Amino acid sequence: MSDLSASETRGYEPTLGDYFALLKPRVMSLVVFTALVGLLVAPVSMHPVEAAIAILCIAVGAGASGALNMWWDADIDAAMRRTAKRPIPSGRVAPGEALGLGLALSGFSVVLLGLAANWMAAAILAFTIFFYAVVYSMWLKRSTPQNIVIGGAAGAFPPLLGWVCATGSMSVEAWLMFALIFMWTPPHFWALALFVKTDYGDAGVPMLTETHGRRVTRIHVLGYTLLLVPVAVAIGFTSIGGPLYLALSVVLNARFLWGAVQVWRRDEGAAEGDSYATEKGLFRQSLWYLFLHFGALLAEASLAPFGLGGW
């Protein structure tokens, strides 16, 4: 945990933007989008006001997780170039303030979600916050190279959570959306680790690239992509899928698999020679991959009332 003290922030008054940065807004945007899709593709409709409150609670809960993660990981963030300017390591926000904000937002989001949607959804949100802040941040991240694999569950819960907000129950479709994000997370982050290799080593994080080497990491990228493809395509044959989703998924997965094969075939000499262009390309592709899959599910649900979406 960071040894930064409140005295180090003396002389600077944190702004609203500093506190907002603690919530990891970029991560929050993906959480909100996938949770919204999970809610909208569910077979039960929520009242618009209740749905809006539910999504707000999920967003706030995700932000709370981010604040708690930044509080605990301040020492790691300070050692990594791409995170050194975050609010705590840069001295703009005191660690205690981040902890207080994270705890307050956690309690607020869980209780309000229980009142606005149902208590099963509230329990899942509470577990998600706990899993990300405690199981992943405090334990897995610093203890095992499989941190990304197991910790990926925290980021995979939002669509399932949206579904439970609407239905009060779980289903195969909800768990497949969960599995889509869960299986996507390892190749997404390991592709990133391949071209920001020095950051994790400097921070002492046991990323797979540091503990088992870059060749093993490339094999894992391909292996998890092979596991991801059938999950993504299988959703197309469920009640929330349809011909539009299935066609798009086949194309996206063919491209993503080919990109993973290219990363697997590369050696370090070739990668360094072109500044990891292939690895960066797979990482960029992974961002669009998830957005387009969930966008296609949303499109299927939107077209269904007109007899155009779904099977």
UniProtKB/TrEMBL annotation:
InterPro entries: Protohaem_IX_farnesylTrfase, UbiA_prenyltransferase, UbiA_prenylTrfase_CS, UbiA_sf. GO terms for cellular component: plasma membrane. Its main location: membrane. CDD domains: PT_UbiA_Cox10. It catalyses: heme b + (2E,6E)-farnesyl diphosphate + H2O = Fe(II)-heme o + diphosphate. The keyword Endoplasmic reticulum does not apply. Keywords: Cell membrane, Heme biosynthesis, Membrane, Transferase, Transmembrane, Transmembrane helix. It is a multi-pass membrane protein. The chain crosses the membrane at residues 27-45, 51-72, 93-113, 119-136, 148-169, 175-196, 217-238, 244-265, 286-308. Its EC number is 2.5.1.141. It holds the Pfam family UbiA. It is an enzyme of class 2 (transferase). GO terms for molecular function: protoheme IX farnesyltransferase activity. GO terms for biological process: heme O biosynthetic process. Pathway: Porphyrin-containing compound metabolism; heme O biosynthesis; heme O from protoheme: step 1/1. Belongs to the UbiA prenyltransferase family. Protoheme IX farnesyltransferase subfamily. Carbon 2 of the heme B porphyrin ring is defined according to the Fischer nomenclature. Interacts with CtaA. NCBIfam families: cyoE_ctaB (TIGR01473), PRK04375.1-2 (NF003349). HAMAP family: CyoE_CtaB. This is Protoheme IX farnesyltransferase. The lineage of its organism: Bacteria, Pseudomonadati, Pseudomonadota, Alphaproteobacteria, Rhodobacterales. The gene is ctaB.
